[in-house]
Each structure stands twice: as structure tokens, then as C-alpha cells.
Amino acid sequence: MIKRMCLVFVMATLALTTSCKKESNGTTEVTFETEEHDFGTITQGDKVTYEFKFKNTGNADFIIKDAKGSCGCTVPEYPKDPISPGDEETIKVSFNSAGKMGETTKTVTLFCNVKEGIKILHIKSNIVPKGTK
Question: Looking at the whole model, is its pTM more than 0.85?
Fold first, then answer.
């Protein structure tokens, strides 16, 4: 039973990563201004957002198939339409610190048509109790 579940997981992961790659004559590259953002010290319960700016530096459309936060507290909003070569866009990441404490690092995984099939963005913060900031 465990072997069967592992096999299904591996096959699903493989299907997800390979389905993100778009066949094209050009290469798709994307350049982010930064792939990590530090919110610094925030108060427990704060809801903060950051927009990751990027540019399609390749010679084919950049397509984001899906974006997933590492937990329910991290929610990405991303462009659904293809981004043409030379165009710039943003990915807005919202983080809800409710129930969290201390040094926290979260990720957003973009399933897209770059060579690697994914791009990972990082956010971090130091969460303190209310009234201590």
C-alpha cells in the first residue's frame, strides 16, 4: 500500500513539473529584482504583502501555470496571461502571521515554463507577540 502511494506521488509530481514546460522555438528566462523578501519584525496577527517584480528576459512567452504557498498563511497572486519577452510583471504575496511566532520563512513555488520547471520565491519575518514591537 505504501509503495503504491509513493508511486502515485512520484508520478503526480513528475506530471506537474513536466506539464509546466512549454514547447517553443525560443528559451524562456525570467529575472526577478529579488527572489527573497524580509518583512523584518512584525506583530503576531499582522497581514503583510509584498510584490515581487520580474521581467521576461527570454525570447519566448513566460507562462505561470500555477503558484502555491508553502502553507495556507502564504497566498500568491500571479498573472494568468502569458508574459511576452521584454515585459515586466509582479507576483503579489500575502502573508498572515496569525498563530505564528519567532523567525519564520515561507516559500511560493511557481510552476512555469522555465528550464527548471519551477521558480521559488522566499519571504521571511520575525514575529513578536502583540504589544512588544
Answer: no
User: Which has the closest alpha carbon to 38: 110, 88, 91, 106?
Assistant: 106
- Yes or no: say if 64 and 77 are a contact pair by the CB < 8 Å rule: no
Query: Up-side HSE of residue 120: CA atoms within 13 Å toward CB?
Result: 6
Q: Of the candidates 20, 119, 100, which has an alpha carbon nearest to the alpha carbon of residue 65?
A: 20
* C-alpha cell read off for 91: 507576483
**DSSP class of 71:** S
pLDDT by position in tens, the chain (length 133): 555 544 445 555 555 555 444 444 456 999 999 999 999 999 999 999 999 999 999 999 999 999 999 999 999 999 999 999 999 999 999 999 999 999 999 999 999 999 999 999 999 999 999 877 5
Taking the C-alpha atoms of residue 75 and residue 71, their distance in angstroms, rounded to an integer, is: 8
97, 125 contact by CB (below 8 A)? yes
Do residues 126 and 102 make contact, with C-beta atoms less than 8 angstroms apart?
yes
H or E element: which one contains 95? Answer: strand 88-96
